[in-house]
User: Fold this.
Amino acid sequence: MTIVSASLVKELRDKTGAGMMDCKTALTEVKGDIEQAVDWLRKKGLSKAANKAGRIAAEGLIGVTAKAKAGAMVEVNSETDFVARNAQFQDMVRAIAGLAPKADGRLDKLLAMPFPGKSVSVEQHVKEMVATIGENMSVRRTVAMSVGDGLVAEYVHNKVAEGLGKIGVLVALESKGDKAVLAPFGRQLAMHIAAASPAAVTAEELDPALVERERAVYTEQAKASGKSPEIAAKMVDGRLRKEFFQQVVLLQQTFLGAGGDGKATVEQVLKGAEKTAGAPIRITKFARYALGEGIDKKDGDFAAEVAAAAKR
Assistant:
């Protein structure tokens, strides 16, 4: 019999919102595999928050920079929010973000670059900051993007200082249109991405494994309904188009920014912006960083509650 730890039960509950005992049962059934346990709960209709897999958090800051045709973003983690509010830490994150466009999205390249005003690399400077501040910290990830014509727009949510916050977004717009139209549209689009968290620009760009995983869940639910295989297959295809794609495909999402009516899709709003800008607009790339997503953060009080439940 698989032994399920309290920390694993806590992680699954954070991901799904399901009850602790349901989480323990799911993990036992799938021999402790967290992703299979998420699917198990969803197939049983027990997951209350299937798309909140990024709720587990760590502290630190997202640093964002965008100038005209290029932009970049970094996540620098710390152990506590107290350090993240430290001016010295903020200056470090801002400086690293300023270097990031030249790193082309490569973390190893960014860490090897000389830190501004220092005779050491970014990686070495971070280590020195650990010794100075007395708290562990690291540069976790980076992304960069650019366009030939058009601009890269940015947005920082929960901003603590210029270019620094808890959620960061970059979106690249390729267009020969009026920059006076592209800039505000790009910012509204970045704000939409921050709120809606799409997985890809188009359905064709979605990770096939993600689509197949969703298809498997819908298929299991369709079978449980007692429908014939033919009808079940049509139900699955319909739900993928009408539910899943509209949730995770950027162009198919309902636009949440200014200029939307609460019904228009991003694609429809984009078409309107093209008319105003006087040229086609293509969303070539976007990135959304939420601080600490996917990092397990210990919670002593809640862990004790889960441990008690796991022993039952």
The radius of gyration is 22 Å.
